[in-house]
Amino acid sequence: MGGSDSEVRQVRLVAHFPGVNNTTVWSDPASLSQIDFSSFEQLARTAERGRFDYFFLAEGLRLREHQGQIHDLDVVGRPDTLTVLAALASVTEHLGLAGTLSATYNEPYELARQLASLDHLSGGRAAWNAVTSSDAFTGENFRRGGYLDHADRYERAASFVRAVRGFWDAAGEGDGGARTARYHDRFFDIEARPTLPRAPQGRPVVIQAGDSPQGRDFAAASADVIFSRHGGFEEGKAFYADVKRRVRAHGRDPESLLIMPGVTYTVGDTAAEADEKALHVRYQQVSGQTAIRFAESVWGRDLSDHDPEGPLPDLDPVVEDTGITRGRTRLVRDPVATVREWRELAEAKRLSIRDLVVEVSARQTFVGTPESVAADIVTHVRERASDGFVLVPHITPGGLDDFVDRVVPLLQERGALRAEYTGATLRENLGLPPG
Ligand SMILES: Cc1cc2nc3c(=O)[nH]c(=O)nc-3n(C[C@H](O)[C@H](O)[C@H](O)COP(=O)(O)O)c2cc1C
């Protein structure tokens, strides 16, 4: 991508269909169903109008729980990833279609076949976010696969991705258009021939999301794209440098792995208006009840008798895994240190529980006028804090409209975003080497 330093580096853009958490302001009348196809279609069409690289679905294979009850402060439930993407293939032409599918709970042959099918149906636009899935209780839904330790999940994922790629490669080779691919290791014992011809991309695009050293190495060894949480400028630069170093250590061209942090944004006519809007959105995202549940997940205790508009609980967190909140991907690793930091912050800024949760959990990455947001995005990519962004809107499904109408044209004027799609496949549009 990018080319010489005098050229403007191209910004890669991804539209994240909002998940079932409180990033979306579900109480806003503009927020519609997270299940109806019309919502997926609207967001995908908007992304394609904005010349985004791909549309992206996260996945949760079990409903979130809090204190043994379904966590129902936001919306609950979402349809199957591949089914939605297949339907979207018929209402879009160029947009990539990326689905999160767990390497812990699926089977390589089946998934390789499903992704190859999506690649055929969409004319070369399929992508797979190969996650390991982080919570043991999801494993209860999959008795056969069960749950694995963190390190085992990455070992299985590496073996899984190798097998999936092997099946993609075995298509179109050998007698009758396919050769037998064999995988025998600790996790798999498979000998199979693909049932489809070679996919248009050969190998559909593989994305990785996982932040530990093992996760980063897994991506450095085998992914085309990383979906990260490091959207801020300095943390983004540190993450970018770390991952590209790992990519080089695996003997790969650093440009062959794209780093795409998830970010949120608010645009306004003036900087002051954008700041005001952003703060308003944050308090809508974090209701009093949401703040208490968030605090409970860190303290590991019932805090329902606390006033969200009052001071932080004068209690120590319960350190052992109480399972009070299950099914979130973002868990605090060290509750004692986190609570200590929060106490200091709350005292210094005189924050209530709700103010504190707003402060630590829901800050938008880009806030400003369309001009300043476009300039910030170009700066992040130029300075290698990222190769682009996964935009997570706070309204479902219309939340990308203002970005596409107001920021995209400015990125195009600066030469940082394509005016038209030029590649035949997602891989080509992303500027990745052939699969
Ligand atoms: C940005 C990001 C997004 C993720 N999205 C999902 C998801 O949609 N579904 C899922 O099952 N796991 C998801 N995960 C979980 C990871 O696959 C992984 O299991 C978890 O982060 C633990 O690995 P780590 O210690 O390497 O981060 C996500 C992780 C990250 C960092």
UniProtKB/TrEMBL annotation:
One GO MF term on file is: monooxygenase activity
**InterPro entries recorded for this chain?**
Diverse_substr_monoxygenases (IPR051260), Luciferase-like_dom (IPR011251), Luciferase-like_sf (IPR036661), NTA_MOA (IPR016215)
EC main class here is oxidoreductase
Q: What is its EC number?
A: 1.14.-.-
Q: Does the keyword Oxidoreductase apply?
A: yes
Q: Which Pfam families match?
A: Bac_luciferase (PF00296)
| Repeat found in the keyword field | no
UniProt cross-references to Gene3D superfamilies, sorted A to Z? Luciferase-like domain (3.20.20.30)
Q: Can you tell which superkingdom this protein's organism belongs to? A: Bacteria
Query: What are the UniProt keywords, alphabetically?
Result: Flavoprotein, FMN, Monooxygenase, Oxidoreductase
Q: By its UniProt entry, which SUPFAM superfamilies does this protein fall under?
A: Bacterial luciferase-like
The Luciferase-like domain is annotated at 33-382
Q: Which family does it belong to?
A: Belongs to the NtaA/SnaA/DszA monooxygenase family.
Please identify the protein, giving its name as recorded.
NtaA/DmoA family FMN-dependent monooxygenase
Q: Which organism is it from?
A: Nocardiopsis codii
